[in-house]
Amino acid sequence: MKDFAYLLIERRSGYKQLVVFLSDQGRYRHRFLADAYRHEMGIATRKPGALRTASGRGYAPPSPQSPPEIMLKNDGLLYLMFESSASVFVWDARVRRFKRYWLSD
Q: Which domain of life is it from (predicted)?
């Protein structure tokens, strides 16, 4: 089974919500990954490899939660606000949750 990510749009308000459907023991479970926004948002897959974060680009000071660079061992999920900020969600199997790293401000 594959995992899936979708931007769901609430019909009345137009708010967009990032949702992932994770395959787990022959069934799917969902997780909401980010707050709902009205802005134009996009998602994409980021292949494994080194990725410079916002702190590595000089947007913020480095910290344990924001190292200058991360190494993706598996695909990451890019979450983009068009002409604005970008972040990547990475599954952390050790704690069984997604971690979010900011790539720009």
A: Bacteria
Determine which helix (DSSP H) or strand (DSSP E) holds 57, and give its type and residue range.
Answer: none
- How many other β-carbons are positioned within 10 Å of the β-carbon of residue 51? 18
Dihedral (Cα; 88, 93, 95, 101), 10-degree rounding: -10
Gyration radius (Cα) of the chain, Å = 14
Write out the H or E segment, with its range, that includes residue 60.
none
Question: What proportions of the chain, in percent to the nearest 5, are helix, strand and coil?
Answer: 5, 55, 45
Distances (CA, A) of 104 to 73, 82, 87: 21, 12, 7
Residue ranges of domains in the chain: 4-102
**Alpha-carbon distance 70 to 52, whole Å?**
7
State pLDDT tens for residues 78-94. Answer: 999 888 889 999 999 89
10 class by beta-carbon count within 10 Å (0-12 exposed, 13-18 middle, 19+ buried): exposed
